[in-house]
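Risk register update: the risk of archive-format incompatibility is retired. Evidence:
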Amino acid sequence: MQAASPSLRACAVGTMACIHLLALAAAATARRVPARGGFVAAAPRVRGKPLLRPRTTKAVALAAIPTIALYESTSQLINDAGCTAGAAAGAVAWIKIWTTLAEKGVIDAKLARKIVHCGSGPLYLLVWRFYSDAALAPVIAALVPALNVIKLQKASQDDNELSRAISRSGDPSEVLGGPYVYTWVLLLAALVAFRTPYAVVAVAQMAVGDGLADIIGRRFGSKKWFCNPDKSYAGSLAFVLGATVASMGLLRWLGFPAPLAPLFTISCACALVEVLLTDVDDNVSVPLVGGLLALTLR
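Archived output:
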């Protein structure tokens, strides 16, 4: 019986590394369970005894060791590691800019939160173009949102600059709501659909479409939808236009065709999903519908 080829072995180890990363993030949130309107502690803390949490940062680094060891070439490894380092630094800088402005009162905290929402996903996708074609490149790219998952977990524990900037009311526990789901979408997009039109469209709808809908809706959305008084016609229009333009730009940046009519139709469908599915987090429903509809793109 012939031995498995090096590429098959690399893919197998890459798959195991992906599973390991997902398991680590799940273990880090094992102390919390979802509840209506956010997350609640799974068990009360015992006074005087600090809550022990898994050392996820060290564990993620250990999980990456087999991935690094089986990289096709040193040059590809250096290139992809550099891309991940640059993307991670850019993510930190992007959030820091807007959290600082919100802390100083230069802009409204809600506006800062939505600007972060609009830009984080597209900025991450822009870096995808520079990764190599190595089989394990998606795993290295996924380290960026994986580390952000860990950062959000830590931010949810106490009052801090990050939690105040990206939560609706300033309550740290809200960090494990929408922002946390948003980051998980980026993580799964990298692992499951790295550098594909489906991931691009899904992220563009979630980030730019949903973000602009809130920004424009708050300012100009006096006329509300007859079926949802929390959503406005102006916000939905901003959703469609912003998501369409963002999808086209990101697709072309990554070398894919960007047909206007299908992308506009997908954006309209996602905007309606945001209006109609009120019981589902739009950071789940919008990218899911957008990604599925993007399967029809040729």
